[in-house]
Amino acid sequence: MEADLSQDDCKRLVSYRTMIRFTLLPRSEKPPSLLLVAQLRSLPPPNAECNDCVLLVCRLPGRRRRGKTKKCSISPLPPPPGFSSYNGGGMNGTSTMMDFLEEPLPGVGTYEDFNTIDWVREKSRDRDRHREITSRSKESTWALIHSVSDAFSGWLLMLLIGLLAGSLAGLIDISAHWMTDLKEGVCLAGFWFNHEHCCWKSNTTFTDRDKCPEWKSWSQLILGHGEGAFAYILNYFMYVIWALLFSLLAVLLVKGFAPYACGSGIPEIKTILSGFIIRGYLGKWTLIIKTITLVLAVSSGLSLGKEGPLVHVACCCGNILCHLFTKYRKNEAKRREVLSAAAAAGVSVAFGAPIGGVLFSLEEVSYYFPLKTLWRSFFAALVAAFTLRSINPFGNSRLVLFYVEFHMPWHLLELVPFILLGIFGGLWGAFFIRSNIAWCRRRKTTKLGKYPVLEVFVVTAITAVLAFPNEYTRMSTSELISELFNDCGILDSSKLCEYVNDFNSTKGDDLPDRAAGPGVYTAMWQLALALIMKVFITIFTFGMKVPSGLFIPSMAVGAIAGRLLGVAMEQLAYYHHDWAIFSGWCSQGADCITPGLYAMVGAAACLGGVTRMTVSLVVIMFELTGGLEYIVPLMAAAMTSKWVADAIGREGIYDAHIRLNGYPFLEAKEEFSHKTLAMDVMRPRRSDPPLTVITQDSMTVEDVETIINETTYSGYPVVVSRESQRLVGFVLRRDLIISIENARKKQDGIVSTSIIYFTDHSPPLPPSSPSMLKLRSILDLSPFTVTDQTPMEIVVDIFRKLGLRQCLVTHNGKLLGIITKKDVLKHIAQLANQDPDSILFN
Amino acid sequence: MSAGRRPPPRPLSSEGREGAEILYPGCEFLFPQASMMFAQCTWKCASSVLLIVLLCCVLSPPAQASKCSEDIRCKCICPPYRNISGRIYNKNVSQKDCNCLHVVEPMPVPGNDVEAYCLLCECKYEERSTTTIKVIIIIYLSVVGALLLYMAFLVLVDPLIRKPDAYTQPLHNEEENEDARSLATALTPSGPRANTVLERVEGAQQRWKRQVQEQRKTVFDRHKMLS
Q: Which of A87, A166, A287, A488 could be A388's S-S partner, Cβ–Cβ 3.0 to 4.6 Å?
């Protein structure tokens, strides 16, 4: 038998490469077996092109893939000598194609836990894959269908994510609403109804809207009546007991089944989207437990919201559904595009703001956000919002509880109080971040962190005991916000709307400013107390080991402050309408100040102060209100709060938590302005031993294994020889371990003295030596290099923009050192006078 | 080769995986990723089916039940007017009839005042789906119940029925080098050779437990994350 096949056989082979597993061997080594060629000859004629081919033997042992077609391989003839002076020449072209076609070993090309992915490598892998599918799609109908379905799979995935995220959000909304009401009583018409749905049919009176015969408070159920001190104490007791039960259940489930389900999740998702691997963080158990415990945590009355965790839940959905599609399962960079879109879907259902969700993903969460992802996010957000809308969790055909709708005009002078609210929001944001980070650091470093269950228990007990007496803290935070946003009409019966009414002068909805009644004054000091309580309890709540979001509590703080200011302004205008500032626009009997608008602006300001969002925040707020009139007030407040908060502390809450935990996140927002060079940052340092390298064709398996065992680096540069130090490529530790392990088991004749070579064809060896191990397929032939004189500004920019994991440093073409992402992060931390060792996961 | 050198991490076995591939070629075709063994594979098949069922459950009731009479209402809130106190009217009418003239019955004011009275009233049409609410609450409660039962099982019953050595093995494993172990687990997801479905589930459960324990150490003990 000859090693060379005829041209025809080659052609046939090329078209059947889908069935062929490639293991490249030099043409001189072994002739193909008779059986194999016979099998190949029976293939039908194809129409592919093939020039200089050589058929090579497949080395797969038969025992592993029993009963399957024997696999074999072809490769182009090695280029003539001299052409491959730099080892294979170009990185693209046929050789890469062939390398790609080699079915990789399981595990090669994957990453270990707590490692950073290489965006460049992942993206080029996806491009190769895509090119391959496109070129193959011309060959047969099946391949064409495959290529179409591959192109379509991204959108299909978005559809599924939207459906799942929307359904889960509906589940969370409905059950959280029900369980919140369960703290106060139960519905006799059907235990699954919450208070509002329980009283759906019954005729309620104007003054006591909440009361209906079907809904029984606990005291009514146990004592038979709801009046008196004892009934109050019983209700109080039941409220605290339920709150404690819910939160305990939440923290126990988190601790027992999925510890990663705690917290808000947005800092971690930001880190993951920037390329970090946290195995299990977006897994199925995390999804289940986060969904379940989020409901429990929200209904326990703790000062937390569901918005941040919903983003995490949506990202879990995205990650799990990625497993259904090969394209996304195998490529970490592609998967992160999906996760960006899933985050948008999460915000979309959390606030009922699809566009706000997309912008949130763009502004706050995502790291790499190409236009394609923008459109996909848009679609996912749309589907999610539609799904939630069709579930209709609140019965008001809206996606959020605190949807508001008013169209009162505002006066230019009102910008002054809006800016004041912005300043308040910024101050509060900065104060909150400082104190919350201080508290979290205490939790991280002292004994406090050893008792997560006890901590949750104590905080819930304090919250519940303090919350019950004040009706504005007793109700759920979403309801509170809804009430504060609401503009008092003549129909409202809440205390906040108890103005002195003059019914004879009213005409329809157009209510003038009125004097505040006693109810409003009571509500004011109750709200003031609620504000103080929320401000402090939120600091201790955020970061506990239950799912906890930050949006709702910060919005509540801002809304309370805004409402207080709004009512104050209103009364000021009512009693002093003759003042010069009010004279132009707020004469007597006019409706000029809307306290609900102040609450809304305050909420935006506080949220902006904490998260430092601007565009997405304003869009979310105006999608909530459904009115475009208030964009300018909202923008003014958001901008002011960002300025004020940035002046005090430069990072938002999520960035602060990222830094507290030391995640390797390369912030894209900050400029690098120091005059250091690449050689100052690279490893090895001047005093260190030289860089550990692997030579391309002279090291044995044993040598490489020694290097692997003695060092902990996650990758090694491959050079032509130790003397010349000319760079060939980069090989990852994990790939190397897996390949050697696999070769030792599956490949005949691989022993410790076998030579490993990374070249295209094997180096000449004496005939007695053991067979060699070719590992070119795992070699990254296009590692990124900079020279040692490159300024760090440029290096940091390269790392940010390309999402590199490591970058090799050369001098006069000789390999000098390596800079990893963590080196860059440490360098930045060092220059900012922080502890460089705070970057964990080394 | 130095004598004391630790051998490279070796997969515990690959036969289990192979067995799964041969026994369940369909699954292997659908999910060729080799790091997935049978239990995970079926879990994925099952979970995708479950997902579709859940979606159907959640999405279909509104379509079927929206016309159900007790799920719609038109609620009119009328404020106090002259000497009439405020009232709330609640009626079961279609969306186009949802206005003050149709819902407020009997009209408390004489004919010429009706228009003025009705201007003050605010009518809102609302729909809900009782089936959705019921299904969701029941699903939620049963999931919580199942989780609690499973937790009780893991805490109370499991240590009793499990042999001591099998129980201490994961603890022993953790003493090893972290790096080597994570690689080993990546390479050998299948664990010891599993013959019956029960054993496979057992293996999957053990692996899951180890993962959770690892997560717990990261979050609660070392405070590396999420603090």
A: A166
